[in-house]
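Aim 2 progress update. The chain analyzed this quarter is reproduced below.
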Amino acid sequence: MPKWEGIEDASTNPTRIWLSKEKTAVHQDNDNNNGTDSWKPLRKVDCLALNEIIDNQEVRSAHIESGRATAYIDTLTIRYNFYNSPSRQLIGATWFTRQEKGKEIILHPLSAADCDLVEDLYQRTLLSSSSLGSGMDDILKEEVFLTDESNYKVMVMKNGAGVLTMKKRSKDAGFLSFGEPYYVLQRGYGEYTVEGEEEEAALGPVRHLVFVVHGIGEAMWSRDDVNIPSLVEEMDTLRAVINKKLLEGWKRDCEKAKREKKIEPPLPNRIEILPIEWYQRIHSASTSLMKSLNAATLRSVSALRAIANDVVFDVLMYMAPEFCETTLDCVVSQIHDLYHGFQTVHPTFIEDGGKCSIIGHSLGSVIVWDLLSLLKEDIERQKAQKMGTGEGTDDDPIVPPDLGTGVSVSSTSNNGDAADCPPVGYQAYAVDEDKIGDTARRGAWGPTLHKQLTKTLPFNPDFTFFLGSPLGLFLTLRGAHPVFDEMRIFAKTDVMEVNGDDNDVVYVENPTSPYSSPFTLPSGAIYNIFHPSDPVAYRIEPLLLPQDTADNSIPDPAFLLLDGKGVRLHLKARQLGDNMRKTVTGLFRQVGEAVPLSTSIKEDTSSSKKPFYRQSAIPLESLKFALGGTVDRVDYQLQTGVIDNEYLSAVMAHSNYFRNEDLIDFFIQCARA
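Predicted structure tokens:
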């Protein structure tokens, strides 16, 4: 039996390896050297799945990449199920052309028809070289012309050491011609690994589905000339990191259980992350505006102006009702499609206790907030219908029930003039008639739309992350702070009359009532997470406190901490210094004040008989924000490094959230809770 070169799979029936590449890439040609994307093998489990159905005439497709894509045998195409990525070309091969580029060996698959021709020549060569064969003379002279690579022919060559090699040459090359290039053919792909396959295959089924809504500037990040990962690429990387951390954590738990002579814990279940992309919709819908904007843009410093147009444009357009509505409709429609499509691929997800959560980054967090606001209104409307407060018709309108906050919420105007009460957006106001006409107490926390959306989120999120969020800015511009404050005042009050000549009415807040606004959104937990140096991020908690709260009374954001871990030492030292500075400053301020800070604030009632409000002194340490849901706080800051410079960190802080180790670990902790 002679020796062979290039035989990686010597079995009688070699295993077909499936590979893919971008459809836009140039197909392998005579030089085996063109195309922007090389063929990459699929995961081994996916290759086995495709090999099982290759001869099945009824089943011609299979889910691959843990259900995120589908491979179609007949069209040799891979299409992604949950995000907008280009289709990929698919091929299954047992023979490959070897191309050497320095120390790297690149394998190009032969088509199925050409593989059959080469395999037939290989089998006849084995038979000829066997004890019952007729010898190698005729085989070594034989040439087989390929079908799909019609410019090439294949032959068996034998070197001086008697080693046989299957080689591919130009069909015009003579048998003894010199200088003609040739390529070695390889049977079988050989050993290979696909990054992330081992970790994902080892984990349990998906039990948590997370949707991620991108922020500003995705139009710029997606450009070919910008070397920044797109949202899909970011999520692919994040998913691989999470799977690796899950498996490594499980292995550590197993070692601990072994030391303590306990039963090994079960494998953790997978966490699936799906990106939601809306920038194509909003930019395609505003083509004429973009043309006008580009025409009005100065030609100097074009790179900087392109950034401004691509990044700032998203924010400005979202503030317009028409495009806000378009964006929200785009996002919620995608979530609906992916939510139901995911259950098609994973039919027992909900039945097995699967949960869904949502993450919004940058402007995406404002979109998520607005969708939760729409969901909140939809839930309250359904409650009202069940309570029989209206049928939703013009003659018998739905009346939102008392939310326990003394505040009425409506998405349309039903009081006053159109000029005073616009018929769009979320108008929130106090029930107290003396306050309804006070425009300073009116505002909106949700989006301003021309009409109601036909869809809302199909689930209540288990948790919601706002990352690097400008939401605090948007809520301030919408006038939400006075509304939140009014909710707080009317949450729980005891009314009493003060004896005096004016018989003023004073509302004294019940000591058991929250010091913060009772406003909530339908989410298990809400985290507003930011890097301290992120120039785009804003806080939310101060807007849930009384409007007259002094700056030095506003609690600092909580640190994002993992279970069993505390604040790092250098941050504790910094906190201690800040607290000492605040204490000294407060002492100096009290010396110069005639009235102590603890004195209640009384509004000027000389010109009006309106009631005034007295705020009881409640320790800030006992604050609990209802908006946080299952957690007490809303604002969380990432822990910085020892030598972090806030100005240098600001450059990359806004775009590095999905690569922050503390945030990834905290995300895993929340998803597995």
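The longest strand covers residues 204-213. Residues 231-259 form the longest helix (29 residues). These observations will guide the mutagenesis experiments scheduled for the next reporting period.
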